[in-house]
Amino acid sequence: MPLRSDWSDDLCPIRRSLDVLGDPWVLLIVRDVLHGRGRFDSLRRNLGISEAVLSRRLNAMVEAGLLVRVDYDSGGRTRQGYAATEAAAELLPVLQQLALWGERHTSMPASGGHMAMIHRECGNETTHGEVCSSCGEVLVPERMTWVKPWRNGQDKLVPAGVLGEP
User: Fold this and answer.
1) Is domain 13-86 given the CATH code 1.10.10.10 in the classification?
2) What is the pTM of this model?
3) Closest CA to 139 of 104, 82, 101, 97
């Protein structure tokens, strides 16, 4: 028995969206793939997710059109990773707004810090999801960097369809 209803044919676009994006793992996987971590082992390690759960989610996300499989060479052996489609890249404003909401409305752990979303074209932090709050340019993943103090570094986002790992 399914855990929830199938909303894929519902008239409400919010329900149809939740039919695809309603599982929290989906947005976390999209976040990581947009940051160039599209290899299975990288996703599993970074997310702390079991192989079985990750495998099911990735297959469902490919079927839903959020991810595509991308071949890469791993020591003379061809393997498959995952890259974002345009549909997944269009979730960037949603992810940014979730991050901003989380900073405003949840308690930050003691070891945390403000996650700055930097528009690389103008070099300024943006507080909007679709256009840069500084220069007004439309935001796309390949022109964004997220500065995460708890990681002591930056995550540059990658274009849709690109596996960002070396």
Assistant:
1) yes
2) 0.87
3) 97
